[in-house]
Specification:
The chain is mainly alpha-helical. The chain is 70% helix and 0% strand. The chain has ten helices and no strands. The chain binds fe (ii) ion (2 copies).
Length: 165
């Protein structure tokens, strides 16, 4: 029993190492050259501004979708690559500004309001980004609907393959 425990402990540093590597952006290997071929120049700049882990996830979603639906429209392919681009934003909200003034520094850094806000609003924020940089209107629409497709068949497809990830 004690021997077993010691053996398990011996493997702990390797386990922790693997976990921290999986969390670090530098370890992500997105297939950017392939992805850029599916985007307009403006959309490509937005894609490259995404975190490497989000780009890797986006490539996997797009490849999965294309494997099952090789006839997917160009807008759907681009939307699959950009669907989480809203996560690149970390806006400083008014309530955060107020909180930072009221709450002691150490406590305010631990409050997750900004991160929570971005997580919930990233489809709308992403769609706004696509529109602002001059991306295709249909791409923006699909990004906006990727968690709530409603009756949009293409958005529903994107939602399904995003969920499989
Ligand atoms: Fe998302
Ligand atoms: Fe996603």
């Amino acid at each position: 029993m004690a021997f077993r425990l010691l053996q398990n402990l011996r493997h702990l540093p390797a386990k922790v190492g693997r976990l921290s590597r999986s969390l670090r952006a530098s370890q992500a290997r997105p297939d950017d050259a392939w992805a850029l071929g599916l985007l307009t120049p403006a959309e490509a700049r937005l894609y490259l501004g995404m975190d490497a882990r989000d780009r890797e996830h986006a490539c996997r979603v797009t490849r999965g979708l294309l494997a099952a639906h090789p006839q997917a429209s160009p807008a759907l392919r681009a939307a699959a690559l950009l669907h989480d681009c809203g996560k690149s934003l970390r806006p400083y909200r008014v309530h955060e500004r107020v909180l930072v003034g009221l709450v002691p520094g150490r406590l305010s850094r631990a409050l997750p309001f900004g991160a929570l806000y971005v997580r919930g609003a990233h489809p709308a924020l992403g769609a706004e980004l696509v529109r602002r940089i001059g991306g295709r209107a249909r791409v923006a629409e699909l990004v906006e609907r990727h968690h709530t497709p409603g009756g949009d068949a293409e958005a529903a497809l994107l939602h399904r393959f995003d969920d499989l990830e």
